[in-house]
Amino acid sequence: MDIERAIAASLSGVAVDGEADSPADANAVAEAGPPGSTLDMAAPTYTGREFTGTRPATPPRSRALAPAPAARVDLAPGDVKVSPQVYVSHEKDFTHLVEKVAIETLAEEGRKIHTSNVMANIARSAGDEGVHNRCINALLQPTTWQPDSNPNGFLLSAAEVSRLCDMTLEVLKSQEMVLRLRAPIKVYGDIHGQFLDLMRLFARYKAPSDGEGGDIDSMDYLFLGDFVDRGAFSLETVCLLFSLKVKYPTQIHLIRGNHEDPTINAIYGFRDECRRRLNEEPEDPESCWNKFNRAFEWLPVGAVIEDKILCLHGGIGGSVHSVAEVRTMQRPLYVAQIPQTPFEQRITDLLWSDPSDNDSVPGVTANETRDPDGTGRIVKFGPDRVEEFLEKNSPLSMIIRAHECVMDGFERFANGRLITVFSATDYCGHHKNAGALLFVRRDLTIVPKLIYPVERMTTMWDPMVMQQRPPTPPRPAQASRDSF
């Protein structure tokens, strides 16, 4: 670990597993209230402070009830609402305990609102109803999750998984092909069914929950595709991400990778995992495997953070020239295995292309690793393509992509104007690489946060897939040296 710490220390602004989080984390949101406050609310109107000196303190608001209001109208999904829970800090016993209580249990807060309308403008709580909540409660366990003792079982039935896919599909249909996102946000790369690595990242750098150790109240999350295949826990990974998408549709963002494609995930493990663990026949049109892939075909293929950072899975290849042309793509989106038209080539570039091996290789070149047959359809793009694309799509100034295993979990290219992020450690048990997420602060500073491989107590990868199809090797070592 001394060597790892030395490496981490040499990377300015990089947070490493085992070290304290960067002070930049505090930039996301100030969770504590004003000194002496005991109620932590998002936008308090009365702090409990009094004037000092001769001026009298402002008295509390009157307890008289207001006249009965007009009949209440439910709010549309995009309207401003008040949370049904508040956080209360108990400091008198010196434990600094904070608990979550229902808003209607407060003794005074609702006295001026008519009793028949006391819950007006309150966000509806989903409680524990719904398969998505059950899935989150069972799987979002960053410090304690362990694989099921039955490798052929899964916590949800096939019928429940099918319902989850239907719910997710409805959410995806309501959103754009290129998402418009805000900072602060955490960006994750490929997970590939290595669910334990996802839990380790959540445990070390906070999770998308509103409980202890969570930061969903102040943070968005973006996952750049390749949720499934190769790893042994693709179902856990994709079901948790789908469940989070259903629960937090405007804060959890999923975009499509090249493995979110039935032709690919039929070969690299996901179809067989669905067959074995859900006890289904994947070829059935209504199988969970088919429903997953129907949802995948509605995933966005890109996202733009604060008009400055373009996020996608693969790259821009030689055919992607503007965000506008990507935004107009229609869904459901099908991927041609051998693209025949400019439109099909654009999809292939978005999902499959890679940066060239280092900054000294310009233009569009062959991608021998992913295109061993030499069809010329899967390519690498040079730093000049990155510069040209960003200049044409001003005010964009950065591209974040996934798709390739990189040894430090992230890697810069094109003089730092493109970053590759990869979140699975020791990919498929072959490469001993670190995993990372990229934290985009409110001021758009990008802070990489790393974890390193650990000893595995159980097999994390599909052994049959590993034997038949070795993982794509990481980016060349020379590229890693040249990119810094």
TrEMBL record:
Alphabetical list of InterPro entries matching this protein: Calcineurin-like_PHP, Metallo-depent_PP-like, Ser/Thr-sp_prot-phosphatase
Domain Serine/threonine specific protein phosphatases per the UniProt entry, residue ranges: 255-260
Keywords, comma-separated and alphabetical: Hydrolase
Region (Disordered): 17-64, 465-484
Hydrolase recorded as keyword: yes
Gene3D superfamilies referenced in this protein's UniProt entry, alphabetically: 3.60.21.10
Homology family: Belongs to the PPP phosphatase family.
Name the UniProt record assigns to this protein: Serine/threonine-protein phosphatase
Species: Durusdinium trenchii
